[in-house]
Amino acid sequence: MGKLTVKGIKGIKAPGKYDDGDGLRLFVQASGARSWVLRYQLLGKRREMGLGSLNDVNLKQARAEAALQRKLILQGLDPVTERRRIQEEQKAAVHDDSVKFVTFSDIAEDYIRVHSKGWRNAKHIQQWRNTLKQYAHPVIGEIPPSQVTTDDVLQILKTIWLEKPETANRVRNRVELVLDAAKARGLREGENPARWRGHLDKLLPPRSKVRQVRHHSALPWVELPEFMQEISKREGLAFRAMELTILTATRTSEVLEATWDEVDFSTKSWTIPAERMKAGKEHRVPLAPQVIALLESIPRIDDSPYLFPGQRQGRPLSNMSMLMALRRMDRNDLTVHGFRSTFRDWAGESTPHPRDVCEQALAHSLGDSVEAAYRRGDLFEKRKSLMADWAAYATVAPVDNVVSIRK
Q: Is residue 292 pLDDT above 70, yes or no?
């Protein structure tokens, strides 16, 4: 965690060197000019590298760029030397057509290569490459980052901003990050043409005005007991995986990638590691008696760590397996993710369980950063009661769909 804060930086008046940590410093000159410098050591020698003016590079960007440069250092590369090499290649390209200049796609690939070590999974890396390849590279992929303009960015976004606003914003953000990296390396100057606030927000309508919210198709909670009775009678791991997904109110990937060593039968809990959670935070799931019975009924495969091993050795069931199971039931009106909405509707409409407990059960972030700082626990004991009620309701024989809440 860095030492500096955005608010604290605004209050700095006196000239000096202000450490953020890990070699990153903010230099404040007597003239009032402020700039970022990264101090590092390579092969026994101390060096400094400028990361840009505070006017162009904010605290978050400076930390990101410092992290990127530190990764180069860990690889035995000198960031200053690397920057000069790229700049020289750019200059040479102006006078020699035979020299390949550094393009936007080059910088994008380098950005992905360096940052991917800190990303959660291979899927995220592939999403980065796919979206840039499909939308950005046809327009700006083969030109130097210094030549990318606002018109170029608008050309990338205009075809998808209204039809696929979420995808469009991801593309915009990724182009912005790549261009920020290019600027930190001295490969472009001036304003980032992909920046939203104070720039593109003047040229494009906000996503909230064009977005068509599509909720995952969810089963009404009053119909759940009957649905659970139906899938309990069907054979196959996909249906057992669906039962576990519903009874634990977890996500598809969290269930399909679950391993036996994550389940603790003695404490009746399942601990999903941070790297497999959407929020990047470890999540403990209390296991109701019905869930324990379900897990005990699943056969273990000696050479597989997964609860639900797939046909390929060393891999779990496909992420399409449960959706295909729904289709075999002629339930094209449902999605697996929608059962989380079913759970939330049931908890909110027919139980006295507090909102925070229900949201924590779904591994949702609770409140703002200040509120979260004061909430250190995970409400496990309270969630244990909630999930027991949910499992009891979901597995009860459907008579009149009346839920009984324990006092």
A: yes
CA distance 279 to 363: 8
The two structure tokens encoding residue 328: 């075999």
- 302 against 400, higher pLDDT: 302
pLDDT given at position 252:
92
Same domain for 226 and 116, yes or no, is no
Same-domain pairing of 9 and 119 = no
Helix (H) or strand (E) holding 47: strand 45-53
Q: What does the pLDDT average to over 296-304?
A: 90
Q: Which pLDDT does position 184 carry in this prediction?
A: 87
Say if residue 266 is in the same domain as residue 387.
yes
Check pLDDT > 50 for residue 54.
yes
Which of 66, 55, 56 is CA-nearest to residue 20?
Answer: 66
**154 is in which domain, residue-wise?**
78-210
pLDDT band at 71 (very low <50, low <70, confident <90, very high): confident
Sheet (strand 263-264) strand order: 263-264, 269-272, 283-286
Task: Identify whether 106 is part of a domain.
Answer: yes
59 contacts 49 by C-beta, under 8 angstroms: no
Indicate the DSSP class of residue 133.
I
> What percent of the residues of the chain are helix, what percent strand, and what percent coil, each to the nearest 5?
50, 10, 40
